[in-house]
Amino acid sequence: xxxxxxxxxxxxxxxxxxxxxxxxxxxxxxxxxxxxxxxxxxxxxxxxxxxxxxxxxxxxxxxxxxxxxxxxxxxxxxxxxxxxxxxxxxxxxxxxxxxxxxxxxxxxxxxxxxxxxxxxxxxxxxxxxxxxxxxxxxxxxxxxxxxxxxxxxxxxxxxxxxxxxxxxxxxxxxxxxxxxxxxxxxxxxxxxxxxxxxxxxxxxxxxxxxxxxxxxxxxxxxxxxxxxxxxxxxxxxxxxxxxxxxxxxxxxxxxxxxxxxxxxxxxxxxxxxxxxxxxxxxxxxxxxxxxxxxxxxxxxxxxxxxxxxxx
Length: 311
What we know:
By secondary structure, the protein is of the alpha/beta class. The chain is 53% helix and 8% strand.
């Protein structure tokens, strides 16, 4: 339990944060009609992409660094507490079905562990030591990239994770929603999306959460594009693990190749459902084993494998 002095210091810190600022013009929002509140929220949300746009050069630099390390076998690891941690876990969990990433290739760590996804784990976000222990459990090293996520930019778990990862030689990114944050200062790549005070004072699952989600979308998606997980804007590494994804896989092969349905079915069957392999087999006019070999030799980049097949 923190002391009264510690609580006073924390309150003083929060008073300096843009994301925690009180907006007197909204003090009677609870008296407004629902449609008026909805319009206010919609207007607030519309400002988020512009705030993200100001940080695009820093976001791009971080992505290039992450992709370079992942191409050498490194991992992308998100760390955060509360809403920020949940957003990291969400983004990581979408990578296997969308991009067919391997187990542990993209990881989301939330302060307090999996239980914290649905319930509050008291005190977990206040521990730098817990963050270091969670990273050590993954044997984080120089090939990995660690992204600390915190709306305030001061959450000890996120800051501690970035500090520890940097000592281990990993590439580090600090994503916050306040200028001059401790998290950005601790990271090699500091990204600060300043979205301003929230509709509800301190409720950073709102604009700050939206901003973090947009940036995490960019980090994972563009990194996967750089790693050859797409062909144009087609998700050619999609893992067809259910009926919807199997239908999507067939549609992707059709869009990429223009081949008739029987040819697509035969190619997918020969490649055991691997979308990228089926596309290469059709466009490169090679059999499934050759497609597998060419993709292995091109580190999974379909365009390079196609050039090799046609040469």
